[in-house]
Design a protein that fits this description.
Largest sheet of chain A: 6 strands, parallel
Oligomer: homodimer
Largest interface: A-B, 39 and 39 residues
Radius of gyration of chain A: 22 Å
Strand content of chain A: 15-25%
Distance between the termini of chain A: 43 Å
Strand order of the largest sheet of chain A: 1-6-5-4-2-3
Chain lengths: ~325, ~325
């Protein structure tokens, strides 16, 4: 188990350290990269040797952070994991560097404490909020580039201030980052307005297949394995559209059915608070949370749909 | 021309007034309704008689504001226009009440000054920011309902903190409103996650017609008059999708062509900063801003497209 430390202690250890290796989680998102990016520039501005390591490539959209990736150019003297909720999220490709993490900075309450010391704020909407507090405490100047990194972490992890994790503090920090020169317009354009061509292609297929049931209280979209392959859609594109049917006005149950390469049907169910998604899926051998659940169905599409809609009808009656 | 007044003067007049009629602009959006809603509750809590007037119905999604609409229940003693940038935006249906406006509270720098007195902050991202400053100056308690109204105005007028009008002050006010009890999660769900069925229908048609040109640097969508009618799409649905083609990764020029009831083609052009949309449209008899312009074309669709793409090619070469 980690030693749980506060900002002051984390700070004194970071300021003493050199040859710092900042480690992101695999499939990196804006928060893990933005948090590492802010620390990278802050430590570099203090004259330290520092680099960023991630098991997967950093998406090109984050190029503005101007990071130096770790390619063995120094022997790490201090390793810091940022926004990595568990050791399994590092990725095997970088296992030699993740066995003995000195410090973990995180905001996931579930963090099991795999690092020697842990700076955790489970109330923070993003790891970047914790990094912001750390830099302010240190009196380190928030340059426009650091502000861009932190704004990226905070805005992406809150769906641009929409998710329930957003707090007054989140907005207060955003205000400070804008004051520090974050390039709001260009960042919001990159982070929130742009959709990949494969995402657009999969949305098109989804909307073509859209069917309403029960007077518009249920909406279902369906993707065949051939359509998914043809669209060049990646998992992230498909995960993204599972909220589409539920987000139509009047819809209480949104269903996404996607055919797997093996031919079975993977079903995602999203509901409004009054309807139990987990109950719908439980009767079909699946499970999940009250508003987001899933199951896998075999047989013909018509049979799968009929079984699903029978469960939906039950759930709508109870809801 | 209006007398230009400051917050203190506006406040003293409002506090002296009674039988206050708060007037929104036609086709009401979250800012005009939210600003009127916040003033409605603040003045009502001070014991005043007050009601809200709008030429068009208030959309059902704003029901949580719990407003009393004006139906002639009192003779107005003081009329206040909120977020109404010009007299033509009131709507003819309420003309008898809009000839002699006592106070206009606005954030549009172009406001011509049609009211007796004008409280204008052209730097504010929303009229609701001006109303917030007014209530704070008055020492009026920001109740959770007032916070909901103001959050609605600010978040909708900034595309949930994404548009270039968003400032540090916008986020600071959002932080205060959350602290005052704004129902962030429920509001964001209502305001930003839900799409109407007609909007979904028009997106489907748009994506089915999507064509890329110039190696994906230009994307075009096309809607026939029959498709628009069949989708039951309103102007607001169609305006909303004009940003769709430009927001695809790699696209520099996004074009929306919609056939008018008369058969002509209304063209909307949206571009990245490096490409001049106004120049594309100017050569076709239209005009507009650098990143958002439009024109109207006659003749066959193929000719219209060819003329447009020729201009796009020119603009891409210069960009």
């Amino acid at each position: 188990m980690s030693e749980i430390i506060d900002i002051t202690t984390a700070l004194s250890r970071l300021l003493k350290a050199d040859r710092v290796l900042l480690i992101c989680h695999k499939n990196p998102d804006g928060d893990t990269i933005g948090s590492a990016g802010a620390l990278y520039h802050a430590l570099k501005n203090l004259g330290k040797t520092v680099a960023v390591l991630c098991a997967d490539p950093i998406p090109a959209r984050y190029a503005y952070m101007d990071l130096t990736l770790y390619t063995g150019q120094f022997t790490p003297g201090y390793t810091v994991a940022v926004d990595v909720a568990g050791i399994q999220l590092f990725g095997d490709a970088i296992a030699e560097y993740t066995k003995d993490i000195d410090l973990c900075i995180d905001h996931h309450p579930s963090n099991p404490g795999y690092a020697r010391s842990l700076l955790l704020d489970g109330e923070a909407a993003a790891a970047a909020e914790v990094v912001y507090e750390l830099l302010v405490k240190a009196g380190i100047e928030i340059t426009p580039t650091i502000a861009d990194c932190l704004y990226t972490g905070i805005s992406t992890d809150t769906g641009c201030f929409k998710f329930s994790s957003t707090t007054a503090r989140t907005h207060e920090i955003a205000a400070k980052l804008i004051g520090a020169g974050a390039h709001l317009v260009s960042l919001n354009g990159i982070l929130f307005e742009s959709k990949s061509r494969s995402r657009i292609a999969i949305e098109r297929i989804a909307l073509e297949s859209l069917e309403y049931s029960f007077d518009g209280r249920c909406a279902t979209i369906f993707l065949t394995k051939e359509q998914i392959a043809q669209a060049g859609a990646e998992t992230i594109d498909i995960e993204g559209i599972t909220s589409l049917p539920r987000n139509i006005e009047g819809v209480e149950v949104g269903i996404t059915i996607r055919q797997q390469p093996t031919g079975s049907y993977k079903v995602s169910v999203r509901t409004v608070p009054s309807v139990d998604a987990a109950a719908i899926c439980a009767h079909l051998g699946g499970g999940g949370h009250r508003q987001a659940a899933g199951c896998e169905l075999l047989g013909s599409l018509d049979n799968a749909k009929a079984a699903l809609l029978a469960e939906v009808e039950q759930a709508l009656c109870k809801g």
